[in-house]
Amino acid sequence: MTSIPVFLTADKHHILIVGANAAAMAKLGLFSATPARLSIIAPGAADAVKASGLAAEDTGHTGLNVHDRPFTEDDLTGKTLVYIATDDRFTEERALRLATARGLPVNVVDQPTKSTFTTPAQFTRGPLHVAFSSGGAAPVFVRRLRSSLEKILPPSLGTVAQAAGAARARVKALIPDATRRRLFWDRLYDNAGRYADLDADDVERLIVDAARTHRVGATSGQVQLVGAGPGDPDLLTIKAHRALQQADVIVYDNLVSRDVLALARRDADLIFVGKREGDHGIGQNGINDLITERALRGDRVVRLKGGDPLLFARAGEELKALRDRDVHVEVIPGISAFQGIAATTQIPLTDREYSNSLTLVTGHVKDGAYKDWARLAGEGRTLAVYMGVRNAGLISAGLTAEGVPASTPVAVVENGTRATERRFYGTLGDLAALVQENSVKSPALLLIGDVVRNAAELNLAEREALAATA
Q1: Which of 114, 231, 313, 371 is surrounded by the most beta carbons within 10 Å?
Q2: Closest alpha carbon to 312 in 378, 365, 239
Q3: pLDDT digits (tens, 9 = 90+) for 107-148
Q4: pLDDT tens digits for 307-346?
């Protein structure tokens, strides 16, 4: 991080603006909305300020001083921040040199290499003040980010925030439990758009009324089974992201990427329960006990699972354990690996020419038995195999032994949707060699079927080779 993000207390500062061009007026307009004292100095400053509608009589800003004359060194006395926005290069260099010599923070507008600080892009929603900066490296990105968030955050959020501040002490008295209270504020934030037509006093009254009747259930805790998706954090649902931000405890395993974990609430307890080489972890029963006990203690628990929590993730056992103890539980779906990988490889899993059915199976089959797999793959069908890397040879042998052509195209995708994604293409007969020669590791998905011919990155030679095996 090359910049230090700081919010200054406006009424304790006296800001000097040297210049009277459009950039100077933009800075004056920005700070006119604050109680900071302002001085603007430049020949023609009075006319520029009046023409921009920023004169004291227009804005009501009582701390504005306009000096229609050239800058002098004495103008720096008593100032705490200096902005230089002038087309006169001599004045710019002189003001910069003198301000720097006095140790004053100085910003030469649109010239970050000359400045000791930059002013972030920003917008407000009532008392909420949101600021963005790239340290001058990517101003267009900052502008786009600000624009995106302005569209997402409803204007009523400012009114709700103002009312929440006024009601804060009464809500604390009505909901003394910290976890319950945080859940209450979370829900208020999520529903801020409902208060669009109300003023702050009305919203404050409704907040206090809601706090009087607030209930979360038998305990203040709950468990959410959350789908983390296949690894790309951008594929998280908005609801999943919200759950990560609100969790007291996050229980996760090997399939959850670091990028997804980075979105978690900073002070949440992160508990790893996956298996490592030589360590089988606490086991499924241990996980059941852990999430149940933490919820009964009053925590908001997220059980974070790779992909979708209801697909090959043993969610049924966890749901039963939680229901048996009367713990409130919610399931938040996620994008599964087969969906994410189909998107990155651009392989349509069903296709009028190649496939009218899709089957999902796990490669962990009891006793190594692959019975009736011929019904799952072959002409007109697509087969997606999860956790099939270790048994790739058995899968290939089992399918071909039951009549699935060895020439059937396959795709092996490791770390699907992540920055480290790797893709390999071949045929069912070569599947074991494809995995071994490329040292494919889990997590990886096997896609088996003629739809693989549609993979975006297959070059002409590879397409012709696959066609020749058909």
Answers
A1: 231
A2: 365
A3: 999 898 999 998 888 888 888 888 988 877 888 898 888 888
A4: 999 999 899 999 999 999 999 899 999 999 999 999 999 9
Buried b (16+ CB within 10 A) or exposed e, 329-342: bebbbbbbbbbbbb
What the block records as the tokens of 114 is 């000359």
**Of 12, 50, 172, 275, which is the active-site residue?**
275
Q: Which of 335, 374, 383 lies closest to 355 in space, CA to CA?
A: 383
Amino acid found at 168: R
Residue 182's nearest CA partner among 270, 300, 328 is 300
Set 75, 232, 253, 450: catalytic member: 253
pTM of the full structure: 0.63
HSE-up of 241 (CA within 13 Å, CB side)?
10
Give which of 448, 338, 339 is closest to 383, Cα–Cα.
Answer: 448
Max mean pLDDT among 22-36, 48-62, 263-277 falls in 22-36
Query: In this structure, what token pair is assigned to residue 94?
Result: 């002189």
CB 411 within 8 A of CB 424: yes
Q: Could you confirm whether 267 is annotated as catalytic? A: no
Q: Is 253 a catalytic residue?
A: yes
| Digit-coded pLDDT (tens) for 49-93 | 999 998 888 888 889 999 999 999 999 999 999 999 999 999 999
